[in-house]
Amino acid sequence: MSETGRNRKLVKHYHEPGDLHELTFSCYERQPLLTNDVWRQQLGCCIDRACGEFEMSLTGFVFMPEHVHLLVVPNGSQPAIDQFLARIKQPFSNWVKEQLLIVRSSLIHRLTVQERPGKTCFRFWQEGPGYDRNLSTPAVIEAATE
Asked: Against a cut of 0.90, is the pTM above it?
């Protein structure tokens, strides 16, 4: 197993019908990349599309400069939180990369990382699933939304 594989956090994702999910995911190396109104608007569009595709109700969100918080309620019996997040993050990341290439921004170089010898990739989001927890009681929900 690689050093990276050994040190990667294992996050347990689970679903109980009716539970609100608090999802948090970060920009690459927690850089403050979400400071642009146009980018945040595009991120909102990606979230809306993913909610429709994966039968999620968005009940709250916060865009911070270096991370995102979402509160969602899965409406289906077998929600795929990992696929839902990928459906938000991948299209948005691809869109940002296109925008940076169009304007020839130097940011493209900071966000292009070497995955292994001879292989690079553009990385807007921090690797991994982020943080996911179920909010199942009124007290926990209230604490998460304050």
From this structure: no
